[in-house]
Design a protein that fits this description.
Radius of gyration: 13 Å
Strand content: 25-35%
Strand order of the largest sheet: 1-2-3
Structural class: alpha+beta
Helix content: 25-40%
Shape: globular
CATH class: Alpha Beta
Number of helices: 3
Distance between the termini: 35 Å
CATH topology: Sufe protein. Chain: A
Length: 105
């Protein structure tokens, strides 16, 4: 499966939210069939919402919803993956990281 190995091996870095202003940040992750775009709303240095604006054609919405919920509940990228969907989870987390990381200078 194109992109699976690379996506499984991607490293997720936590982002220091204390440096981010309130706002909506956009990011993406693309590797093979794992193509995600996200919008992340940050309020008071906390992740308030994560909206998936693009997902692969073949995907499992329940997995996406659970991963987004875990990120929102934790307020960070330090979350456990949803069982049996590790690559999709990592792709979503990397898209969120990319959205937030490009804003931190």
């Amino acid at each position: 499966m194109y992109g699976l190995r690379e996506t499984l091996n991607v490293t997720i870095e936590n982002v220091d939210l204390s440096n981010l202003e309130n706002g909506v940040y956009r990011g993406q992750y693309r590797k093979g069939r794992f193509a995600y775009q996200v919008e992340v709303m940050v309020q008071n240095h906390t992740i308030e919402t994560v909206t998936l604006t693009q997902v692969p054609r073949i995907s499992i919405p329940a997995v996406h919803e659970e991963m987004v919920k875990r990120v929102k509940d934790a307020g960070s990228l330090a979350v456990d993956a949803v069982a049996s969907a590790t690559a999709s989870n990592k792709a979503i987390l990397k898209a969120v990281e990319n959205a937030l990381q490009k804003q931190v200078k």
